[in-house]
């Protein structure tokens, strides 16, 4: 029936989430096995592989020292002064650039060796998981594998979600990309069906023209349990023991202007049978994994409550289960938060985006500030750690909307345990990216090509980011007049104000789980992780993973 390789190289660790097992890859592996074919997952995003490719120790030491001094300033909710920028900031920037160059050399050598191993593996095809950090190296790997073995290489994953068939226009070494979750497509591929006859894929025809097959609704009531077994999923020992569990086909019926998810996964929601999701948690618990994150960015209404009820009914909550989830202000406002808390839910992540009602209308979020206040209050009163995410500045941001959002964040502070801030991103598969003129967004020449390999590093200070290949109107300036520094300065000043004056944390829901694994205060742990990632302290990262895995308690 064939032998398949599912390959992941996430590249530089810019977020703790890069060190989680990949649920989609484990699910694809189980689907292939259910069809009688052989499959292996090579997850090279694990800490052991990445630490072996780390830069020289002296560079990491310099970065650690300078970073420590800068983060002491940041932890006091203040920005570095001119002297601190000169004495610590400039050396950190210099050594960070040197480390990146060295890592790139190490990665290039590693990819060449990997291509040889894959070519000698006797695989029928390779499914290449495309991450932001390792995207360029994954494309190099695809070219080398094609050259050495001539086997088909298909792209899947996060970068395909964002750029879809556009990837094929730039990287002909890929034989196609699998759009959306790709579960039915991979099932049929494992049965031997030609790639151009599969649903939800894109490929280049004989003339080089990119074609997309029919987009079909992804059904999830037939899925086998994801396969994390060591004989299939290689690299688990170097990953944090936190697993994602999906409750649906990830489709979203909403029409938020900034979001690519409906384009990726469709608008027609299919719920996974609750018992199937609970079975998945039970199987993870048997492996000792008791920290779970619900993967749906838009859980179907009532599904979190039904899932919690299933967890309690099976008694899984009695084994120190810890769960976090995304949650919608409107669609999940009637969930039974008390039951969820009893089942092991510790945190809920809410995409607030802005607290200015005109801004909410402009981005087509479908909620109001009144909705936000009511839902957050209910969740917080049930004892759930509430995380609110804000996009700032938004296209069309003004001084008035900024003050409205800040004032209302102050009002919400008693119900908000954490506030996450990020600038607006414009992705090709979102309404902002497909219809920028409707939102006065300016896309620069070569926008898609430049964005395709853009290193998104939300946990890294924005002053270390490369300029965006797009701009949007803020503070009365037209998009064409707005520079990256205008966006950066607005973002940084608002961020400092929020964390200094409101005294809220910026703890991610999944960082809360990892802090629980290692027995640390979530706020202090978040600050430590930022420093570790900025300074590329792989020894510290390895210790975090080892400590977390040391707490594994197989049933």
How would you sum up this structure in a few lines?
With 555 residues, the protein is an alpha/beta fold.
Describe this structure in words.
With 555 residues, the chain is of the alpha/beta class. The protein has two domains: 1-226, no CATH class; 240-518, pyruvate-formate lyase- activating enzyme, CATH 3.80.30. 44% of the residues lie in helices and 13% in strands. The strands form three sheets. It has an eight-stranded mixed β-sheet with strand order 7-6-5-4-3-1-2-8, sandwiched between helices. It has a six-stranded parallel β-sheet with strand order 9-10-11-12-13-14, with helices on both faces. Helix 1 (23-34) packs parallel to helix 8, helix 3 (57-75) packs across helix 20 and helix 19 crosses helix 20. It starts with a strand and ends in a 5-residue tail after the last helix.
The major beta sheet can be summarized as:
8 strands, mixed
Rg computed from alpha carbons, rounded to a whole number of angstroms: 23 Å
Residues in β-strands, percent: 5-15%
Based on secondary structure, the structural category is alpha/beta
Number of helices: 21
Count of structural domains:
2
User: How far is the N terminus from the C terminus?
Assistant: 34 Å
Q: What would you give as the CATH superfamily of the largest domain?
A: tm_1862 like domain
Which fold does the CATH topology of the largest domain refer to? pyruvate-formate lyase- activating enzyme
Question: Keywords, please?
Answer:
555 residues, alpha/beta, pyruvate-formate lyase- activating enzyme, 2 domains, 8-stranded mixed sheet, 6-stranded parallel sheet, 21 helices, 16 strands, 44% helix
């Amino acid at each position: 029936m064939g032998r398949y390789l599912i390959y992941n190289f996430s590249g530089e660790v810019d977020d703790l989430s890069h060190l989680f097992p990949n649920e989609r890859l484990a699910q694809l592996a189980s689907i292939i096995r259910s069809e009688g074919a052989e499959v292996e997952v090579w997850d090279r995003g694990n800490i052991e592989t990445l630490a072996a490719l780390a830069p020289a120790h002296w560079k990491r030491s310099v970065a650690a020292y300078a970073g420590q001094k800068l983060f002491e300033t940041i932890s006091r909710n203040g920005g570095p002064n001119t002297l601190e920028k000169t004495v610590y900031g400039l050396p950190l920037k210099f050594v960070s650039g040197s480390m990146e160059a060295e890592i790139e050399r190490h990665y290039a050598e590693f990819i060449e060796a990997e291509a040889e191993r894959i070519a000698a593996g006797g695989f029928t095809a390779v499914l290449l998981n495309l991450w932001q950090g390792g995207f360029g190296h994954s494309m190099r790997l695809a070219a080398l594998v094609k050259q050495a073995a001539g086997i088909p290489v298909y792209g899947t994953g996060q970068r395909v979600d964002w750029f879809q068939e556009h990837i094929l226009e730039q990287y002909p070494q890929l034989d196609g990309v699998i759009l959306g979750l790709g579960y039915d497509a991979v099932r049929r591929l494992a049965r031997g069906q030609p790639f151009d006859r599969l649903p939800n894929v894109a490929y280049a025809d004989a003339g080089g023209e990119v074609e997309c097959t029919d987009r079909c609704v992804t059904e999830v009531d037939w899925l086998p349990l994801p396969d994390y077994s060591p004989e299939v999923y290689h690299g688990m020992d170097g990953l944090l023991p936190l697993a994602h569990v999906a409750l649906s086909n990830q489709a979203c019926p909403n029409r938020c202007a900034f979001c690519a998810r409906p384009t990726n996964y469709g608008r027609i929601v299919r719920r996974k049978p609750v018992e199937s999701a609970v079975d998945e948690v039970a199987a993870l618990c048997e492996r000792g994994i008791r920290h779970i994150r619900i993967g749906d960015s838009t859980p179907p209404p009532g599904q979190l409550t039904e899932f919690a009820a299933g967890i309690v009914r099976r008694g899984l909550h009695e084994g120190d289960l810890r769960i976090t989830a995304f949650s919608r202000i409107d669609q999940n406002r009637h969930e039974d938060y008390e039951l969820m808390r009893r089942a092991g839910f510790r945190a809920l992540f809410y995409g607030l985006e802005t607290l200015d009602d005109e801004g909410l209308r402009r981005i087509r979020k479908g909620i109001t500030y009144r909705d936000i206040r009511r839902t957050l209050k209910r969740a917080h009163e049930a004892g759930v750690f509430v995380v609110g995410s804000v996009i700032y500045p938004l296209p069309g941001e003004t001084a008035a909307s900024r003050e409205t959002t800040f004032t209302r964040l102050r009002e919400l502070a008693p119900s908000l345990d954490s506030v996450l801030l990020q600038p607006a991103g414009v992705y090709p598969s979102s309404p902002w990216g497909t219809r920028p003129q409707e939102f006065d967004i300016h896309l620069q020449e070569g926008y898609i090509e430049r964005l395709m390999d853009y290193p998104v590093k939300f946990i890294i200070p924005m002053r270390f980011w490369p300029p965006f290949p797009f701009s949007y109107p803020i503070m009365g300036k037209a998009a064409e007049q707005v520079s990256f520094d205008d966006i950066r300065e607005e973002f940084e000043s608002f961020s400092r104000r929020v964390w200094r004056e409101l005294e809220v944390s910026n703890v991610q829901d999944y960082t809360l789980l990892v802090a629980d694994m290692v027995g640390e205060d979530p706020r202090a742990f978040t600050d430590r992780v930022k420093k570790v990632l900025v300074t590329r302290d792989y020894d510290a990262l390895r210790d975090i993973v080892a400590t977390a895995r040391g707490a594994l308690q197989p049933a």
